[in-house]
Each structure stands twice: as structure tokens, then as C-alpha cells.
Design goal:
Layout (H helix, E strand, L loop, with lengths): L1 H9 L11 H12 L21 H53 L2
Keywords: Membrane, Transmembrane, Transmembrane helix
Protein name: RING finger protein 150
Organism: Camelus dromedarius
Length: 109
């Protein structure tokens, strides 16, 4: 394994990292600072990385994101439809005005 090779190169292959909650660590430090002997039994535990992430929060954020995307897409479609309608109306008006101008020029010549 690559991690073992790095530890071996650094000369720390016999060091073990133990993760404990911060309050428990502070409690152990306070006991050691008062010169109290601390005995610990270390066992392999489970990973609890999502302790502070609620499933309800994840669902709420996901639904909110989906709703926001739907609203944004609807606005974009509405914007481009209005833009297309405006461009067509402008073209129709220009054609109508040009017909009127041509008719007016024919009469007054």
C-alpha cells in the first residue's frame, strides 16, 4: 500500500491514529494535567461520519434545489418564447409599415 510506504519513509510506521470526540479528548487531557492515571481500552469502532447530517435536511435541500431548477427552467423558456414573439411582432410591423410607405410613395409621385 502507498500509505504504508509513506509512513515507512517517514519512520513512523509504528504510530497509530485514534479518533475520539472533542469533549472526550478534553476530558482525558484535563485528567492527565491533574496527574491522574488514565486507562483506556481501544477497540475498532464504526465510522459515524454522518452524525451531524440529518436525513431530513438532505431531503429538504434536495427538494429545494429541484424546485429552484424547475422555476429557473420555466423562466428561461418563458423568456425565450416572449423574445421570439416580440421579434416576430417587430418583423410583422416593419413589413406593414414598409407596405404603407410604398403605397404612400406611389400615390404622391
Amino acid at each position: 500500500m502507498r500509505i504504508q510506504a509513506i509512513y515507512t519513509e517517514l519512520g513512523v510506521e509504528d504510530i497509530v491514529a485514534i479518533m475520539i470526540p472533542e469533549p472526550k479528548g478534553k476530558e482525558i487531557v484535563s485528567l492527565l494535567e491533574r496527574n491522574i492515571t488514565v486507562t483506556m481500552y481501544i477497540t475498532i469502532g464504526t465510522r459515524n461520519l454522518q452524525k451531524y447530517v440529518s436525513r431530513t435536511s438532505v431531503v429538504f435541500v434536495s427538494i429545494s434545489f429541484i424546485v429552484l431548477m424547475i422555476i429557473s427552467l420555466a423562466w428561461l423558456v418563458f423568456y425565450y418564447i416572449q423574445r421570439f414573439r416580440y421579434a416576430n411582432a417587430r418583423d410583422r410591423n416593419q413589413i406593414a409599415f414598409s407596405i404603407v410607405v410604398i403605397f404612400y410613395l406611389d400615390i404622391h409621385m
